[in-house]
Amino acid sequence: MALQVGTITKGVQVFGERVWDTSFGIPSLSSPRPFERMELTWERAFGGTDDSHPEYPERCEANPVGRGFRSTRSRRGLDGLPLPNLEDPRAPLRSTRERPLPCGFGPLPPHWTPRARLAGTYDDTWQKERLPLLPEDFDERHHLVAPADQWLAGYVQGGEPVKVVGATPEGVLEFPLPALLPEVVVKLGAARETPPCRCDTVHIDCERKLLTLVWRARCGIHGRVPSLHWVKVQLARGAHVA
């Protein structure tokens, strides 16, 4: 399965059900079973939780809901352990010792390591000197819910080509992103402010053939809340769908 949005290209290899097989004494990957549909969810990528050892439970912090993860102190048998259905074709799983990065397209929860490592340091110094503000080492990229290899270099301008291969019955879904330009007007007291509105999120639902774009605008109103009368969102003049 492959995705292209503008200059971003990403491929994921999709397998049918597989397990570790120890029939001949040496662990090997079983042949994948045929399939017609496969959910492109994190439950199908590498990861998971292993609590087979009561004193040393362990989980994959990058994807605790996945499959294929096994603790170094595991008491779980290897034979028949489900393997991930989604893999990075550049780094396929080959050994029981490997712990590949989970591979998928969907949004990441904030407490998983890809985003949690960007959330900053919440220690005693933060509690005494910063609380309730964010830590000084907080990285704004923590708010990006997409995997890092799906981050755009800048904002969506409109017209970027989109191509999805292997996620629809037709085989290929291809279209340009619409060139829309929302305008935000904020009435503060007697003044009107028009903060820039930028598109930073693209969500593609292949099953429903639904495209969702998210624009954001920021206007500082600290100390001016009583003077906020209204906020209006409209398409800017001349805006159109490409």
From TrEMBL:
Region (Disordered): 48-106
UniProt cross-references to InterPro entries, sorted A to Z: DUF2169 (IPR018683)
Domain of life of the source: Bacteria
Composition skew (Basic and acidic residues), residue ranges: 50-61, 87-100
Domain DUF2169: from-to ranges: 2-216
One protein family per Pfam: DUF2169
Protein name (record): DUF2169 domain-containing protein
Organism: Myxococcus fulvus (strain ATCC BAA-855 / HW-1)
